[in-house]
Design a protein that fits this description.
alpha+beta, Aminopeptidase, 7-stranded mixed beta sheet, about 35% helix
């Protein structure tokens, strides 16, 4: 298994991984996912034959073309804390790749690639995603806030991890 930068030829497998990971990640059209990948640094986990097994997208905050309330939350957090921050928009694995620590490998590569004070992400609390909360806490992420977008339907917890 290797971690490498995304290539356009990876898109169909990246899109499949995203689809297989809903509702843990947001459902996206092919056009929207392609746009978010273009705005981010996208890293992929690939098998020995270089087939994509999963991906992570990490964005610099402050991109007005990325219409995300989660990014806006982190922009406010960074301004108030005085810390530089990069934002994990999504991490997704194909079903056959789960349980192999590929998510951890993708994050570890991201930790090494960025020169910010912190890396931030959000995890659903509604719908509940307890496995992702445990995963992020195991990697050293600490909760820093919560938001409810649709009462009884959609809520998230924000996490950050130091990169320095």
């Amino acid at each position: 298994m290797s971690i490498r930068l995304y290539r356009p030829s990876d898109f169909s497998r990246v899109f499949a991984a995203n689809e297989a990971s809903v509702p843990g990640v947001g459902k996206e059209s092919e056009a929207n996912l392609a746009q978010w990948i273009e705005l981010s640094t996208c890293l992929v986990a690939a098998d020995a034959e270089d087939e994509v097994l999963g991906f992570i997208t990490v964005m610099e905050i402050g991109q007005p073309s990325y219409d995300s309330p989660n990014m806006r939350w982190f922009e406010t957090y960074a301004a108030e804390s005085g810390k530089s921050l990069v934002y994990v928009d999504r991490i997704a694995l194909l079903p056959e790749a789960r349980g192999q620590r590929l998510g951890e490998a993708l994050y570890k590569e991201a930790f090494q690639r960025f020169e910010a004070d912190e890396i931030g992400c959000e995890v659903n609390t509604l719908p509940p995603n307890p496995g992702s909360h445990r995963f992020h806490e195991r990697l050293g992420f600490k909760p820093v806030g919560d938001a409810t977008y649709k009462p009884g339907e959609k809520a998230v917890r924000f996490y950050t991890r130091s990169l320095v």
